[in-house]
Amino acid sequence: MGLSLVHSRALLGLEARPVCVEVHLANGLPSFTLVGLADTEVKEARERVRSAIANAGLEFPSNKRITVNLAPADLPKDSGRFDLPIALGILAASGQIDSSRLAGWEFAGELSLGGELRPVRGALAMSLALHRDAGPHEAPARLVLPPGSAEEAALVPQAEVYRARHLLDVVARFLPEGKDHAEPPDDGGWARLVPTLVSVDPACADLADVKGQAAARRALEIAAAGGHSMLMVGPPGSGKSMLAQRFAGLLPPMSTTEALESAAVASLAGRFTLERWAQRPTCAPHHSASAVALVGGGSPPRPGEISLAHHGVLFLDELPEFPRTALEALRQPLESGHIRISRAAMQSEFPARFQLIGAMNPCPCGFLGHPTRACRCTPDQISRYQGKLSGPLLDRIDLHVEVPALAPGDLLDDKVKGESSAAVRERVIAARARADTRQGTANQALAGQALTEHARADAQAIQFLNNAAARLGWSARSTHRALRVARTIADLAGTETVGVGHVAEAVQYRRVLQQGG
């Protein structure tokens, strides 16, 4: 009988690999066989496709031997995204639509039993992959997706994306010449979506709401300007969480590339909404989160919180209460900006260029060093509590900041009010612009020869930093991170050269906690 080919995509991490859906109809004992390393959800497509085709008024070839192959056979396939391409392949093989007209198109969508199309995960990753895989002189394939998924995919510039609400909306566009069929149930079901990139001001809480805490506010500004990670240490109620929740409002606007990367990861987890386009994400997992929840994993691999915070903020409150394995898993992504998940059958890599903002109490009871409350902890309890954070992890956090308790009178005093987020953000944007003009990246990413070249520290500043590192017993990583922070402080001051004052301020941000390995 007939053979048809329909193209789609399978998700493997953040990659959308091409999949060819091959459908063959032959005489023989009636059957419906689906092969090609299909997961349970994909195998269940047989019943969904059968019912959708019949309920849409089309003819399902139930008296034929149907074989569906999802190639390549060694690529895992999951979810219901292959329902639509399988249905179109059966209709093309049986002659109800024109198989030749399917060339240059890719399809994805889950079918309901009535033929309606439902959204799928990873639509943005599919659209990005189409443009990445197309040759320099080759037009990318056109993409047909359900409502919700199509709007995501259309965010990619120059993407040719079509939205279809029902199976009949798609069938009506690929009928053979001169053949009429039932009209789609909704005339507005098929539409080409014009790529639109809109920017919405982030609805972040204002930093002016935080009373006092001038040192912590200054550290937040430095962290935002240089892309640095930060740890806040202070008693309960001192404002650590309030400061962290307002950090995203200090960051510069996202570029189109950053917004697409962040949205693509969110789309994989089903968290993306158009209302949050171009807004930096803030992820705040509970301290009971496992290592897999933080870094990602599973089968097939899914992104964790560090990847969902890509180009945004990962806020870990009560940092020592997280499982030790989960915290240690953050060490490599903090350095590299990505996470590679290796399993026996596959490897997946997710981006993870996030800014870590941690918060913790100084001791188990929380009142060590409090001006009015007595600490009930023994020295051994304090040592064990602070020792939950390993030296290598602390080494990778650029700013260690003490957030002291506020005097009761300051909380109700309207005169104790700092700058707004908008004012701080202007300085952060100016400092980031200086760094981009000088080196093309944030100061936090400087390493090796690039750090030596672009830090531009004078001889006295270098001597001061070397003396401080020797007295405090710093590692080479700690010394380099302090120099990066000093470079950011100089950018905020509008100075081309890093001086002793900039280094001195950077050094004090690494003296709150100093643990052994």
What's the level 1 CATH class of the largest domain? Alpha Beta
What is the terminal-to-terminal distance? 69 Å
**Count of DSSP-assigned helices:** 21
Query: Which structural class do the helices and strands define?
Result: alpha/beta
CATH A-level architecture of the largest domain: 3-Layer(aba) Sandwich
What is the rounded Rg? Answer: 28 Å
Looking at the structure, what is the overall shape? elongated
CATH topology of the largest domain: Rossmann fold
Largest beta-sheet details: 5 strands, parallel
Q: Name the beta content range.
A: 15-25%
Model regions low in confidence, pLDDT < 50 over at least 5 residues:
none
- In total, how many domains does the architecture comprise? 2
Overall average residue pLDDT: 89
Q: What's the CATH H-level superfamily name of the largest domain?
A: P-loop containing nucleotide triphosphate hydrolases
